[in-house]
Amino acid sequence: MYAAETQYLAAGGPGQADFALLAPYFAPDVVLHQADSLPYGGVWRGHDGMERFFVAMSRTWQSFDMVKQEFLASAGPVVVQTQVRAQARATGRQLEFPILQTITVESGRIANVRPYYWDTAAIALACR
Questions:
Q1: What is the mean pLDDT of each run of 10 residues along the chain (128 residues)?
Q2: Both ends of the chain: CA-CA distance in Å?
Q3: Which sequence spans correspond to the domains of the chain?
Q4: 29 SS3 class
Q5: Quick check: 13 and 21 in contact, CB under 8 A?
Q6: Which CATH fold would you assign to the domain 2-126?
Q7: What 3-state DSSP class applies to 34?
Q8: What pLDDT, on a 0 to 100 scale, did the predictor assign at position 12?
Q9: Which of 64, 63, 61, 119 is nearest to 90 (CA)?
Q10: For the SnoaL-like domain, which residue ranges apply (predicted)?
Q11: In whole angstroms, what separates CA 125 from the centre of its chain?
């Protein structure tokens, strides 16, 4: 999924690339929980929700590079630690920050994602 996400973003993301690149990796009833304090915060449900989430991310970030990833657990919920380098679209500010995600996989597809950010206030501030 991360390789498909990179390919999707490299092709221009929402409005430029087809979400069909990502859809096979997500269960039809997938749920993504983002911290409410983020510009793209809230709960995103299903493929339509995921597509809208990627639009919101694209509006927020000029670039969002997953510099380093470490899979800390691959059974039960998958746990992935990602170091991100991003540039906010509105301000041009650049940030580096970690995200820890728990990902539930059912029948080979992502069913639930919960990302945990180290400092959501700093991220939100950089994007204003």
A1: 78 75 94 96 96 86 90 92 93 96 96 96 92
A2: 29
A3: 2-126
A4: strand
A5: no
A6: Nuclear Transport Factor 2; Chain: A, (3.10.450)
A7: strand
A8: 67
A9: 61
A10: 16-112
A11: 18
Question: What is the rounded CA–CA span in Å between residue 14 and residue 8?
Answer: 8
- Bridge partners, residue 114, by sequence: 102
Q: Are 73 and 79 in contact (CB under 8 A)?
A: yes
Please provide the DSSP assignment of 74-112 as one string.
Answer: -SSSEEEEEEEEEEETTT--EEEEEEEEEEEEETTEEEE
Say what the pTM is. 0.89
* Dist. CA 113–CA 106, nearest whole Å: 12
SS3 51: helix
Name the amino acid, one letter, at 64.
F
Interatomic CA distance for residues 41 and 59, integer angstroms: 13
Give the β-pairing of 109-117 and 94-106. Answer: antiparallel
